[in-house]
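Hello, quick one for you while I still have it in my head. I'm working through a protein record and want to make sense of it properly. Would you mind checking whether the tokens look sensible for this chain? I owe you a coffee for this, so here goes:
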Amino acid sequence: MDNELRVVILAAGKGTRMNSDLPKVLHQLHGKSLIDYVLNESEALNPTEIILVVGFKKNKVISHTNNRNNLKYVTQTEQLGTGHAVLQTEELLTNKKGHILILYGDVPNIKASTLKPIIHDHITNNRGLTLITAEINDPTGYGRIIRDENGSLLKIVEDKDCNDEEKKIKEWNPGIYIFKIPEIFKLLNNIKTNNASKEYYLTDAIALAQQANMKIEAIKILNSDEVIGVNTADQLEELES
């Protein structure tokens, strides 16, 4: 069992809803860029390396972060979804073993202290995939976590596809995962774009992992604020207050 951990941070997006020309991850919260919060917590996990997936105005993001040790960059030239973003790391990680933690550069409240026990549990149990979930009062817009009678993950249903009962579920999928290498790339290379946006969604890897009988666990954290991302200027303002 290889317990090497790598952190992949998705930071390629423009953040259209921020109404700004600045890459979303460089917007500031309490005088510090969003990406710096995520990098600080990632470094506290002592990973083998941290890989930043850059894209929109990548030179600005690189120049802001290149004073960090142990940081590598890969470019997502076209923003074709989260699954596609992670797939850009495949060449860098070919022939590597261990596990990948996937984070987002616009989720500034994530804490290493929350992630550490989950990562330890994932590696100790040699799982193929661990999802981090949370509960919020109004999960409208988010994929719901559907569990079976034993509490095991059954499936994730996107908000628009939820029936009336599923809409009442408050446990949602923030999109933070730990995958085993190289299994993750087998999954990502099989994701299709059968959706309205014609994008490769990381979420689709979960159903593929289940079809492959991979060992999967969904672990709920107590503080949902840690996994909520910043998508609009209003949300950023809310965090500032």
